[in-house]
Design a protein that fits this description.
globular, mainly beta, single chain, about 110 residues, about 0% helix
């Protein structure tokens, strides 16, 4: 089970930090990702934190603005979003993956508007 929090409304240039809490006992072995989706479009991969201390990966549109991090003791993954733009507006979903099996959170809305 994945539970996201931290969404909300912010002006362009602002920041938000999303959190995702998991209950997988071997959390450190999971690849943890953030996706986003806007109505009428496919869900888009935004950032991934690889398990076992692997590197972080980002889609080009957020590289340098977003940072994914994780706390394997607390079983949480975070997405720090800086310099937000209107095109970042979406529902953001937390995803866990191991052995090709996906789990999803319920999503949290992020709205960037002046």
């Amino acid at each position: 089970q994945l539970v996201e929090s931290g969404g909300g409304s912010v002006q362009p240039g602002g920041s938000l930090k999303l959190s995702c809490a998991a209950n997988e006992p071997t959390f450190n072995s999971y690849d943890m990702s953030w996706y986003r989706q806007v109505p009428g479009k496919e869900r888009e991969l935004v950032a991934t934190s690889r398990g076992f201390g692997g590197k972080a990966e980002y889609v080009d549109s957020v590289a340098g603005r977003f940072t994914v991090s994780r706390d394997d003791i607390q079983r949480k993954v975070y997405l720090q979003m800086n310099d937000l733009r209107p095109e970042d507006t979406a529902v953001y979903y937390c995803n866990s993956r191991r052995f090709g099996i996906d789990s999803w959170g319920q999503g949290t809305q992020v709205t960037v508007s002046s």
